Amino acid sequence: MTDSLTLRRPDDWHLHLRDGAAMASVLPHTARQFGRAIVMPNLKPPVTQTASAVAYRERILAALPEGVRFEPLMTLYLTDNMPVDEIDRARDSGVIFGCKLYPAGATTHSDAGVTDIRKIDAVLARMAELGLTLQVHGEVTHEAVDIFDREQRFIDEVLAPCMQRHPKLKVVFEHITTRSAVEFVRSKPEGLAATITPQHLLYNRNEIFRGGIRPHFYCLPILKTESDRTALVEAATSGDPRFFLGTDSAPHARHTKENACGCAGMYSAHAALELYAIAFEQAGALEFLEGFASEFGADFYGLPRHEERIRLIRRDWAIPASYHFGDDEIVPMGAGLTLPWKLEIA
Ligand code: DOR
Ligand code: ZN
């Protein structure tokens, strides 16, 4: 049995950091594990302009613990009204690495999102020209579409036609949850990759309803079937560079999740790598964790791989029941569970 695992420092290619005191609470968890992270722009109000992304980046850097090196990779939030020259400004800033497509109404803070992707065709064309990546929340939002079918319908109705209209556009299909999404990514020659979260590797949708309703397992896209989960595990652990790590760690105060209308999002930044290591070990594929966590994402985004190394050691530790979150608290993924892997602090 492997007792320790040395990896190139990993990056998180999909992360929610929030802002203010909430951000200051969660940022150290991410910065301990990851060298960089693609930071989602779904603040309230959303980060739609280069100037606000640059200011948000400064707030993140200012909130880092003393001596910690961590690079936030910023994104812009696409709206129906995004001006094309905002893409030029984003590119010129040197700190913005993509634009996020939230179909309007799809998830947390997506009300200002895009109502019809064709409305932003000129913006997408400019992104393709300048090499900015499109990060996609891949779910249709029509009332009549079943929540478990929203990703599949998005592929057929939105993503596939969009990629045909913009063959040069680099796309990351974020937090994929279905066998269909895995097959779609595999079917494309290049320019398309996908991130996969720890929760979608470790759990199927039964977990949301095990013995009662469990709001801390509610995220979007929602957990899917066991067949979908096994397809995701197979993709993540196959060494295929089109699949890489993106936690979608999405903290919400406990009372907003344990609520008659609970928010979507699971918080995993406290133990992200350890959780992925469990999934990879269960699949007998620990040797593929480094590519998934530390290499393929950087390669896709055209950024250097880190030279620094981190170490996971086999040591039991219990995830706390909660962490501070500004003036509130968050219930982390795996609260109360004992994990067999621990990231060693240098
Ligand atoms: O579960 C989710 N939470 N999915 C998202 O797409 C957004 C995220 C959040 O910001 O809380
Ligand atoms: Zn997200």
Task: Give the topology.
Blueprint: E1 4-8, E2 12-15, H1 20-33, E3 36-39, H2 50-63, E4 71-77, H3 84-93, E5 96-101, H4 121-130, E6 133-136, H5 150-165, E7 171-173, H6 179-187, E8 192-196, H7 198-202, H8 226-236, E9 243-245, H9 254-257, H10 272-282, H11 289-301, E10 309-318, E11 323-325, E12 328-330, E13 338-344
Parallel strand pairs: 2-3, 3-4, 4-5, 5-6, 6-7, 7-8, 8-9
Antiparallel strand pairs: 1-10, 10-13, 11-12
Please provide a written account of the structure.
- It is a single chain.
- It is built from eleven helices and 13 strands.
- Helix 3 links the parallel strand 4 and strand 5.
- The chain is globular, with a radius of gyration of 19 Å.
- By secondary structure, it is an alpha/beta fold.
- It has a single domain, classed as TIM Barrel, CATH 3.20.20.
- Bound molecules: (4S)-2,6-dioxohexahydropyrimidine-4-carboxylic acid and zinc ion.
- The site of (4S)-2,6-dioxohexahydropyrimidine-4-carboxylic acid has 10 residues, from loops.
Task: Please state the second-level CATH architecture.
Answer: Alpha-Beta Barrel
Unique ligands: (4S)-2,6-dioxohexahydropyrimidine-4-carboxylic acid, zinc ion
User: How many domains would you count in the coordinates?
Assistant: 1
Number of strands: 13
Helicity level: 25-40%
- What's the order of the H and E elements? EEHEHEHEHEHEHEHHEHHHEEEE
What's the story with the biggest beta sheet?
8 strands, parallel
Rounded average pLDDT? 97
Strand order of the largest sheet: 2-3-4-5-6-7-8-9
Calculate Rg over CA atoms. Answer: 19 Å
Q: Helical region count?
A: 11
CATH topology: TIM Barrel
CATH class: Alpha Beta
Shape: globular
Q: CATH superfamily, please? A: Metal-dependent hydrolases
Query: What low-confidence regions span 5 or more consecutive residues with pLDDT below 50?
Result: none
Q: Strand-residue fraction?
A: 15-25%
Structural class: alpha/beta
How far the N terminus sits from the C terminus, by CA atoms, comes to 23 Å
